[in-house]
Amino acid sequence: MKVYTYLCILLLLPWGNLQAADTSRQKQLQREIRQLSNSLNSQKSESGTLQAEVTRLEKKLGDTSRQYYQTENKIESILAKLQDANQKKLKLEAELDTQKAGLAQQLQALYSTGGQSHLRLLLRQDDPSDISRTVRYFGYLNENRIARIQKIDKTLTEIETLRTSIDKDRTYLQELNSTLEQQKKDIESTLASRSSTLSRIKTDIKGKQAKLDKLKAEESRLQAVIDQVARQAEARATDKKQTESPTRSSSEKGTPSKSKPSETPVKTSFTPDKPFSTLRGRLSWPVRGKIIHNYGSARNEKQRWKGVVISASGGSSVKAVAKGRVAFSGWMDGYGHLIIIEHDNRYMSLYGYNRAVYKKEGAIVGANETIAAVGNSGGRSQDGLYFEIRQGASPQNPARWCR
């Protein structure tokens, strides 16, 4: 400001006064102008470096959050496996107790008979038929006793195998918990670094016009992606109509159509449960939270919000509002980790500012399926979700669709 004041004063002075100005003062002014110019250039360079660092940190946060999500799923799976194994172990131990009791009862009965051997029975000189029956009886008892012992041995082996498996799973669970704790620390550390770097960037960025230009550029990039998705959807619809037309014409004439392999109708990769247009006012919001920026409200002096921003806790699950195909999943400046889902009849839904996205392009997702985690990527200072609904390139008011 000091330099610009000097410039204004010099411009307002008459030409004669300018010639009479102190030469040393002019040189000092020129030095200050050069210093200011160098400072501005340095500031721009540093701001660009800091912005690149924020982008790197947010991408790292996305990868770590995705790994955290996968580790949580593994822990749930191991816990369920341990629960099943413990139940099976308890059941086997109960069967073992029953088998031991049966064997003990049999041995007690044998002891009560005096433990007579085959030879003693033969030497008693009883009726041969009685001896024969008794020998067969003892044979059956021995076979039964052997079978019981073998069954007990098998049960003991199964219990030991289960114990080994349970111990192994418990060790793996401890490792997963340690990994989860480390990933949590990494997330917290990355968030802290990002917050610090972002604060420095916000301190350096000056001027509403620069911010406006940045927002316009980001919006243009998003619009380009949306237009591309809309064109692809229209192209698929046109191809489907064109491939169905020859079949319809031949059926009307009563002649069979000889379709070439290339003329086979191209089917969409998913079938909607209900037409998206019939779901107006019946959709669930993608995340639970408070709307802090409404559709159509002023974003700045020259822009309005084309969707809504929902304040929610970082890491909360983001749900798809309806069944569809993931048309875009990746990073976009200003919107961070972004995912776009294509529904039927050129409708699409957008989810931005995420900490991480869990679905890849081309994936089919169901209504209320988790697709991302709430975050503040894209340079946001507050956790939340940016959410849009569009038909083609035309934005719709999400409040009229969701309840």
Distance between the termini: 51 Å
CATH topology of the largest domain: Glucose Permease (Domain IIA)
**Helix coverage percent of residues?**
55-70%
Rg (C-alpha, Å): 38 Å
Order of helices and strands: HHHHHHEEEEEEEEEE
Number of helices: 6
The largest sheet, given as strand count, sense and whether it forms a barrel, is: 10 strands, antiparallel
Detail the poorly predicted runs: 1-23, 248-269
Short description:
The chain has helices spanning 2-12, 15-20, 23-112, 118-123, 128-204, 208-253; strands spanning 290-293, 308-311, 317-319, 324-332, 336-342, 347-357, 364-365, 370-374, 384-391, 394-396. The chain is an alpha+beta fold and 403 residues long.
Write the SSE topology.
Layout: H1 2-12, H2 15-20, H3 23-112, H4 118-123, H5 128-204, H6 208-253, E1 290-293, E2 308-311, E3 317-319, E4 324-332, E5 336-342, E6 347-357, E7 364-365, E8 370-374, E9 384-391, E10 394-396
Antiparallel strand pairs: 1-2, 2-9, 3-8, 4-5, 4-7, 5-6, 6-8, 6-9, 9-10
Helix pairs in contact: 3-5
Overview of this structure, please?
By secondary structure, this protein is an alpha+beta fold. It has 3 domains: 1-39, no CATH class; 63-202; 208-253 and 281-400, Glucose Permease (Domain IIA) (Distorted Sandwich), CATH 2.70.70.10. The chain is built from 6 helices and 10 strands, in the order H-H-H-H-H-H-E-E-E-E-E-E-E-E-E-E. Strand 5 (336-342) and strand 6 (347-357) form a beta hairpin. Helix 3 packs antiparallel against helix 5. Mean pLDDT is 76; it is low at 1-23 and 248-269.
